[in-house]
Amino acid sequence: MVKKGNEFLELLTILIENKEDFFSIKKLSEIRKINYKSAYEALKKLEKEGIIDLKKIGNTISCSFNNKFNTTVFIAEHERRAKLLKKSDFRIIFNRLNELKFPFIVLLFGSQVKNKQTKHSDFDLLIISHDEEEIKRVFLTLPLKTHLTYLTPKEFVSMTKSKEFSVVSEVMKKNIILIGIEDYYRLINNVK
Length: 192
Fold this sequence. Notes:
Elements: H1 7-17, E1 23-24, H2 25-32, H3 36-48, E2 52-57, E3 60-65, H4 71-84, H5 88-98, E4 105-109, H6 111-114, E5 123-128, H7 132-140, E6 146-151, H8 153-161, H9 167-173, E7 176-179, H10 181-189
């Protein structure tokens, strides 16, 4: 888990979890319950690493995650996944998928990520892979209610570039990467 007091990781996590939003430094300091100076210094470190954008708008500095990837982003994403894996259903899915011996990406999205799930909610997963059949076999053995969307990397990139509403545009807003953190960021950074 992200340790308390590790402000730059905690602030980065807020920005990653809210990719569509822009936050002022003041707002982020209030969310984290830290003083403005600590938030400012941590955010300047993240900007120096090239993983967030700080833009001055009037008297306010707007902060946002820019989808660039480095070790700090990997750590933040890994911690987000570790928090999710404390729940046994997610641990079961992760462990079974982790047994597969080929590269693929699995993104959790929907109500489970937005914390709006009910006891009847399914697990919405976007799977980016060339080997759909092997992954399907894994899910056939799981006693969980899942809604799976399969895309090849080429289809994912194409849908990411599109301005039309799609499952990919929804997933890009809010997701947790279950499998393939580095591969996911490499894929989205090759879209541009």
